[in-house]
Amino acid sequence: FSISTITLLYITVKKYFSTKTALISTLIFAVSPQFIIFGNTPLYQNFLPLFIIMSLYYFLKDEDDFHIRFLLGLTVGLGIELHLLNVSLAMAFLFYYLLFVKRKLKLISAYLIGIVVGLGPTLLFELRHQFLNTKLFLAYQSQPHSPVSLSNILTQWVNGAAIFLGGNSAAIGIIILFIMIPLLFIKKIGSNAYKKLRILTLLTIAITAILSLKFTAFEPHYILPVWIMFLIILPIIIGKTFSKTTAHAILGLLIAFNLY
Prior knowledge:
This protein is an all-alpha fold. The protein has 14 helices and no strands.
């Protein structure tokens, strides 16, 4: 699955951005300590990056018809099958289409139908077993939990940026977040694909941050859709913000930290 994920990441980024950005994104993915662990550990959620990138491939397409929206929803639904954390990405896509695209009920319906089809195995299981998992989830949510700590949430964001993108360095994780999040708000680049990905990334960050306030067991991999999008958008922002020499130095150091 790692080879498939790297291949699809390269194809997606090259198609919608550039060969140079594709090479940098795939190289960071290939040397990232956490993504290497994902590739070497046969846990179902570790297959999720492939479906997230697949979703982004369909989302970034210029064509927008029933077929494309259905396939987007299908990949999102299959991702939720692997891990519930993909709900944040599902919500981000929905809000994007509701807020930033001319509303067409047919296309929104295609997206939602795709999600339902992707979730088919879970929905059939729930129907057959009187909504067993739903009842267990609601029972868990109704139990008293320790209050959510803002410092813990911030720590998980820093840890996530560190282990997925920063070579396990908390300092690099902090730098990535401090560079990326403000620049996502202010750095507007002409590419339509960049505009779409930029808005989707901000929506996913906001939704994930809100959801994190509801769950005490919040961990860095719950932010996985954001880290995947950062893989793509980070080289673009660095390249457009700094001089060519400085950008190459920053990205080279980032790759070196991950290798180290």
